[in-house]
User: What shape does this take?
Amino acid sequence: MAKNVAVVGVTGVVGQEMLNCLEKRNFPVGSIKALASSRSAGKTITFKGKTLTIEEATTKSFEGVDIALMAVEADQSMEFSPAAVKAGAVVVDNSSAYRMDPECPLVVPEINPEAAKSRPKGIIANPNCSTIIMNVPVWPLHQVNPVKRIIAATYQAASGAGRPAMEELEANARAWAEGRPFEPKVFPYPLFMNLFSHNSSLVDNGYNGEEVKMTNETRKIFGAPEMMVAATCVRVPVLRAHSEAITLEFTNPMSPEEARAILEKAPGVTVLDDRAANRSPQPADAAGQDNVFVGRIREDISNPGRGLMLFVAGDQILKGAALNAVQIAELL
Assistant: This one.
């Protein structure tokens, strides 16, 4: 059955990618509303070869909408999402506003699609990009042999902070090549020729917000509130696609060969692990791709028998955001 869809924040990189995913996956769209801020109202955007006029997003924008895809910041989602639900829509929210709300399911379709059925508030939350990219390959292993502990280090691209951050990285590169000075505006520090701890705020225990999200969201998605999860999240001078080094501790022994066989059959996963050529996932492999790439599948020699290490790369804008949201819409 065709659904009337609204994409809120359609001019951002995630909102635009949501439109692309709806078109590429031939989602059954009856009608579509392209919503954004007042600055973009009146501009046009194309969808399936047709021109859409962008409308200003307001709390009155959702009459007749079946599914509202939110690609806006948390404060805006908290304004628009309840209004969309009140108008009769189901909301798929890409912000952090509702992820840890016990009445809002947090869904990765390859992991917990059944969770989308129960949504008392009418809102389904899309997890954080780094959480999704980590969990897609970890989950199929966890199903076979429960994971007791996850330690992750992330290498996060500028795309995670939106188009202005991507443009800043490109501008910094041009300035460096031309011998001109450059000052950061989007990030607190220069990203080109540099890296730094993720720019989310620190909490009392010294972890930043991105690291806290990876811990709390993984526990919720896996239905494992006691799972030990810790992350170190870092911004790196990559335009698009996040990478992660993941160390796993299992309940029972698991060999790299067994893990590789599981991952080769796992939905949403592409194994790229050529030891002879020292070839493993890179952001350039994952950029523009739907799947999460997994390689460097090896024993954790500090925890022989029950420990494995992986290196993964995934497109933050696609599977880390827009694609996952559209896959949730498909569940509806």
